[in-house]
Amino acid sequence: MYSAQITRANPTCIILLIDQSGSMGDPFSGDSARKKADFVAEVVNHTLHDLVIRCTKTEEVRNYYYVSVIGYGRSVGSCFSGELGGRPIVPIAQVADYPLQVKSSYKRVADGAGGWVEIPVRYPVWIHPAADGKTPMCEALARVQEILRGWLLEHPRGFPPTVLHLTDGESSDGDPNEIGRQIMSVGTDDGAVLLFNCHISTRRSAKIEYPTEETSLPDGFARTLFDISSRLPTNFLAAAAQLGVSALEGSRGFVFNGDPSSIVQFYEIGTSLTGMTPYRWMDDRTETA
Amino acid sequence: MSSAKQSSTWDLQLRQLLLPKLDHKASECEDAIAVDTQTFRFAVADGATESFDARNWAERLAQHWVQRKSTLTVEEFRDWVATEGRELHDSWTGLTLSWYSEEKARYGSFATLVGVELDLNTESPSWQAIALGDACLLHFRNKTLLKSLPLSGSEGFNSGPVLVASDSSLHESSMQSVVTDSGTFQDGDVLLLMSDAASLWCLQRFENGDLDVVEFLNSKSDEELREFFDAERLAGRIRNDDLAIVRIEIKRSKS
After folding, report:
1. How far is Cα B128 from Cα B118, in angstroms, rounded to an integer?
2. Which sequence spans correspond to the domains of chain A?
3. With helix as H, strand as E and coil as C, how does B37-62 read?
4. How many alpha carbons lie under 13 Å from residue A77 in its C-beta half-sphere?
5. A12-288 adopts what CATH topology?
6. What tens digit of pLDDT does each residue of A254-275 get?
């Protein structure tokens, strides 16, 4: 299970589900200039960037992934706008070709002689921060379910879809347990849909990352999210280990009271999938200026 | 594809097979085979799928390596790769690239390479080889594996082999993993040069003792081999990767 090769003929689907409720406009981790929504938008843009780069073959982007970015707050819907606006799921080649804007900046890289050199780089932006309204988590999961239903009909044998859900608070439209379980109960010949949840918090409570059992969790909300979080398959555990994250056989794809580094790692682990060569040779020699 | 070449004392039976991944076109194959039957140099290179211009890099490394006269020491190899890499990067100058291609190009190209040179103009023929990564050279005699390099067995394979980078600033650590070796031939010996998926398959079959790979690769037609490898990859018994195989058999000349 979770071993199907991801190819153009057998692509997989990645859904990024983002809480955009009003509380996401609060500062994150004591940094008053940095709202949670700002940080999440930056990480999501970086994640989309990395997915594109993984699929880039010289001058072509191959459609190994189909991507959906769903936000929920004042409304529920795709976070893509511009050319991609209104489309619930987009092939990665079109994600690559239609960012909202491409920013220019500089990056420090090793010069090969023990020093550093600054080189110009371009950063694409697909989504902007948003924080408004309540937390209609059930309606958002229902939208995810709708997208998955269509995907699974057309791709019954591929690597199962992955849903990466990020939230900072409890659902305002009911208990998400049932619909979460429904999402986890469907899948492909290669395994059930993977639903991973990352809860972020401005509280100073200790963060809990990738637990194996719910007894360590502080309240009912945490236990609900634990219940609707899939176990991390072997490939994902290996990715976690590479990042120095402690995850064990039986660990759920679940973070509670996460901080900024938890978010970054959550998306890195959640998109590690299978069959893609890790970009260690890139990571080892670059440093953002 | 089969062919026969001759030195004054020894005959060379040559067999080559190059297959793209399943569901891929031949033009998308990033493995490369190069053969020079005048100098008796042979090479297999495997472009790293996710790197920029991987196919060109693999072809350039294989083809230019067999055209060289030496490049069998680490020092020569390092200088030669640096020159080849500069020329590859120069070929990208002036291209108008999208943001994603530009980012890929910045890190350059990566490949694995194994090359072997035969000395057949003697009563005691021999070979010298150089390799970096997990494209392998296997030397068989009478169904016995005498040597396998740079990896000695199937347990040595993983998803992150050391790679020949086109950017020489990355050579400091990778060049420490270059393997050189040599051996002598007897009548009927067989060398196999293969990219990683084929090498792994071959070593596993040998270790399990369930297939005489040397004979198998000789006995089947090109079409039969293609069908066999397609079926193995479809069944998942061989990873769905490009496959490059060169089989070289040395026989004493009858004339």
Report:
1. 7
2. 12-288
3. CCCCEEEEEEECCCCCCHHHHHHHHH
4. 8
5. Rossmann fold (3.40.50)
6. 999 998 888 999 999 999 875 4
Residue B24 token pair: 């891929």
Half-sphere exposure of B105 (CA within 13 A, CB side): 23
- Collect all residues from A whose CB is shorter than 8 A from any CB in B: 5, 7-9, 52-54, 56-59, 61, 96-97, 99, 102, 109-113, 119, 121-122, 124, 276-282, 285
pTM exceeds 0.90 for this model: no
Domains and CATH numbers, chain B: 2-252 (3.60.40.10)
ipTM of the complex: 0.84
Structural contact between residues A285 and A115, judged by C-beta atoms closer than 8 angstroms:
no
**Residue A252: in which H helix or E strand, if any?**
none
Does B107 contact A282 at a Cβ distance shorter than 8 Å?
yes
Chain centre distance of CA B25: 20
Structure tokens given for B102: 């530009």
What whole-number distance in Å separates Cα of residue A188 and Cα of residue A181?
16
Residue (of A194, A210, A189) closest to A258 by Cα position: A210
